[in-house]
Amino acid sequence: MIQLVGLIGFLLLILGSLSVRRLRVGFLIKTVLGWAAIGAAIWVAVINKDAILDQVRAIGAQIGVTEPAQVAHGQTVRIRLSPDGHFWARATINGVERRMLIDSGATVSAISEDTARAADIAFENGAPVRVSTANGAIDARRANINRVDVGPLTTQDLTVFVASSFGDLDVLGMNFLTRLKSWRVEGNVLILEPQADGDLT
User: Fold this and answer.
1) What's the whole-number mean pLDDT along residues 65-76?
2) Segment 5-39, tens digit of pLDDT
3) When comparing pLDDT for 56 and 83, which is higher?
4) At what angle do helices 25-47 and 2-20 cross, to 10 degrees?
């Protein structure tokens, strides 16, 4: 809303400066519409920058210009640091693909209600829990995911918290990471290694 008000104010400023020059109305309208289109394009790009960057990286990886954000070497998964300073995994939850934040500060993994419904996870009657987040304590429901896959890494019966307050954010927390043999950061790459037998359960 703040950006929209700023955009309107900017357009009014341009209109006012042009009207002082006593230019034709048609030219003024075309100029304002042109600047409005440019402003709208910038606004859309800003609010969708993460999705746009993901697409750019994916295209770059396909044509060999950049490395893909997530790579599997055998059973080991390597995830490159995102420009936003976080590690994001491409995961599937009960077969439903999601982009999940890997957060060692979260004791238990968490997913949005939309993701829970898409993955057919029953959470409405789950045990109520109070979850502490960076934005304060929120109410959530405890549920279980049948299967989570991150590349070749697979685990089953993973406990998660589900809440509408999570918005569209899905998180893999410590209850996922502790099932690994090891996880570490080298440079700007997060390395996930399974147990010797490949079992994460």
Assistant:
1) 80
2) 565 666 666 666 655 555 566 666 777 677 677 77
3) 83
4) 160
**Tokens representing 6?**
């700023």
Which residue type occupies 7?
L
**Six token digits for residue 152:** 């070749």
Is the Cα dihedral 55, 63, 74, 86 positive or negative?
negative
Residue with tokens 């490949």: 198
Residue for token pair 């960057």: 53
What the block records as the tokens of 95 is 């077969």
Q: How far apart are CA 69 and CA 91, in angstroms?
A: 13
DSSP the chain: -HHHHHHHHHHHHHHHHHHHTT--HHHHHHHHHHHHHHHHHHHHHHHTHHHHHHHHHHHHHHTTSS--SEEEETTEEEEEPPTTS--EEEEEETTEEEEEEE-TT-SSEEEEHHHHHHTT---TTSPEEEEEETTEEEEEEEEEEEEEEETTEEEEEEEEEEEGGGTT--EE-HHHHTTSSEEEEETTEEEEE--TTS---
Q: Are strands 136-150 and 96-102 parallel, antiparallel or unpaired?
A: unpaired
pLDDT tens across 114-131, in order? 999 999 999 999 999 998
